[in-house]
Queue: 4 jobs
Job 1
Amino acid sequence: MSRHIAALVSAVILVSALLMSGCPKPETTTVPTAPTGQGPSVEAPAPPAAEKVPVRFTWSDKACYAPVIVAFEEGYYAEEGLEVDPKPVTGGIESAELLISGQADLGTMGDAPACIALSRSDKLRLICDQADGIRMHRIVVHNASGIKEPKDFEGKRVAVQQGSSTHGGFLAYCKANGIDTAKLTFVPLSPKDFPEAMVTKQVDLVAGSEPWPGNVMAACKDCAEFANLEGLGSIYPLPVLARQQLLAEHPDLAARVVRATRKGAELCKSDPDKAAQIITARPRDRHDRIMYGSEP
């Protein structure tokens, strides 16, 4: 399973690393040393220590947030003087809510939650995109539902986390396939409850990003992937947002966040196996352990 996560990390990070390469890179200074035989070399003075800034950072503890998770676990944020208090959540819309309510200073989430957060608060700013994944959102159906084609969704019960990036992608999928969403029954469930709901046939289909589809198919042997949400006009970016006041108080904060997050993305790209190990080593509940490979 860790190999599966390594592959997922590679897929998610590929575009991220390219996007983040466009962000300003930290300046470096080369200090020449004396030629051999002409005295001791001159060492560069130690750079000033970065100002310590406590930040409450919220993210979903999922593989698609690998750059941020790796940057935190490897101490890249600490190297930039950021004293991160992590606020892990189940989905990006929860991160958006924490930012809007002032309970977090930084947060990363999907495109739909980010748009919701920015539209509801003028106190937030977008810093960068930490990752994206065109195929990370999937639809899983129960074999007993009788669903054979997209139009068969009509009259069925669907579970999708409201306000999530998957929710936005699912609505786009419905529009592209002529599905009347007024004829769907949306069942409000936490993604952690998707497996049980499918096993007990409380819902006919679910839509989510990993680990939720994988969890469902691991728990429900009568469930199978029906489609993924690629090709709908979005690369499903996962931006990082910050409170405007914090950025005003610390003008270099955005650059520090970008540098640390870029290092996390670069490690994911250069060594996906190590990144997978970092992610799978984090404490999880049983729903996540099924996906992340530590379930016996």
Job 2
Amino acid sequence: MQSGRAVSPARGISGSAILPRRAALTEGGARDRIAEREQCSAGKEMPMFYLFLTAAVLVAADQLIKLWVVRTVAVTGAVPLVPGLLDVTYLQNTGAAWSVLQRHTGVLTVVSLIVILIIIWALAARKIKGGVGRWSLAVLLGGAVGNLIDRIRLGYVVDMFRTLFISFPVFNFADICVTLGGIVFCVYVIFFWNRSESNGNDPAHR
């Protein structure tokens, strides 16, 4: 006759089996949550409102700067901005950015309007998947609209920034937006287009 308490076989088996099972379920749930977050991040669409708001803010900044120049600098003369490097002056430009294509306001107005409509369509229709591409187009759009307003309203574009250390065409805030937005978009198309457009994601979404 054996003494002592008998151990239930069922109890021993359940204790050793439940722990690995719980660990597997926990690990699987963690993987599912990580995969779900990655899918949400990759598929997250950038709100169009912020892109067009950015363009509108840039247009407003451009027009306010030009209004100040017309009302102040055009009367008092050039104002130093960075002594020896940059000042603010007043120039009526009938050409495009950086004073090219002078006296072609009508042609430039039509071309600008077409480019603006294409950019608006590309953004609104989400033809550009990458965030960098979208933001660069929003900046370009703001600059293009700013100069278009001048051409329609005045028949010329108000330029004001003049470099003093090199001979360079007088330019304005809208020109800066067009140039920066255009350069960044070109870099995006050349180096990141295939990856971003195929995946619907780029570093700007992260």
Job 3
Amino acid sequence: MAAFHGQIEVMQWLRANGCPWTKTELCVAAGNGHEMMVRALIELGANVNRSMVDGETPLYIAAANGREEVVRALIDLNADVNKARNDGATPLFVATKNGHEAVVRALIEAGADVNKAKDDGDTPLYIAAQKGHAPMVRALIEVGADVNRAADDGLTPLFIAAKKGHEAVVRVLIELKADLHYGRVDGFTAVDIAAQYGHWKIEEILRNAGAVAWDAGAA
């Protein structure tokens, strides 16, 4: 509870009187945005990279909750920016998924691997495209994210953006040279996906950019 409420003096007293660390104090403080508590806990000996049972570290939890100041503090205190949860999700992945642009930029500045994928092949760029976060799509590509890397289901960022109807993301991906002619195993292109889901404006944007639909007769 002291970590939850940011009560630094209480935590210092508990530590001074021999109360053992668990995995939760630093994670709780990080998730609730208590930067000074986070710094105090680490100064008192808490392990900045110690993870919960599911693999979530204090940095991951802070990133998931959009706690930019805590994220920056943890980075300053040598948190591993690429340490992933058990399913392969990194702090950058979850910050991107949840739309925390300032946290994404902080992690990128700290050297987070923009191409590190989850176990299912989803990258930070893929999830940014799926969620419609156009500024993050641009930011990730500009620092080296692979614009055409497909997830395990065969969908590229352009495919998933077209499927979900995210026009702004599609425009950014076209501008930043996404492959307009990539086809899934079944031959479908981004044009086909946009049409299948009724996103006529996106289909038009893709066709105007030079993308074409799958020619079933040529298969």
Job 4
Amino acid sequence: MKDRNAFISPRTSSFRGAVRALLFAGAALALQATSAPVMAQEAASAALPKPSFDLEDPARIASGKKRFNKTCAGYCHGAEGVGGRAPDFKGRTDLPELFLGAEDNDYAVPVKDIEMEAGKSYRLRITAKGQKEYKFFASEFFRGVWMNQIVINHLEVHMAGPPHHLEFDDQGTIAVEFVTVRAGEFPWSVQGLESRGMTGRFIVK
């Protein structure tokens, strides 16, 4: 049998050599691309300054927590929600419950005016006891307080701004938790039932 290489022309041999060179070059580039990010990450890590103390030292962690609570969290509302420069979150005062309607009078409002002080934390329960649909509006008041949350049947609603209004399609209670900011007299009303006496005031001193 004749040697197979005897039938390969010089041109074919050169072509195969070029292909082999391209394959080797591609493999080298792939290897370099794979190792480059790892090498760069290792170089960046080596360039970072080393901390002068153990970051997992319990004593250091406790000291940092104390400093944060004093100068950051503690500066605003207090590390435990009380005692900061801003109003307390804890120790809020429960205001007199505001009833809308009664079992024998859909338009009864036993308490119309509710007083409070600026800069304090409060919880106001608004309860619909009548058979009507009540749309409770207190736009100016809601814009003048820092709204913490609204609670309905142990479900919490947190907002970045004031609510437009509170609507009662059935009997039930909505609890509004807030911190008063602006002093003044702010009216509230039940839309469409103002002429039936369903109005009042929030007085912030």
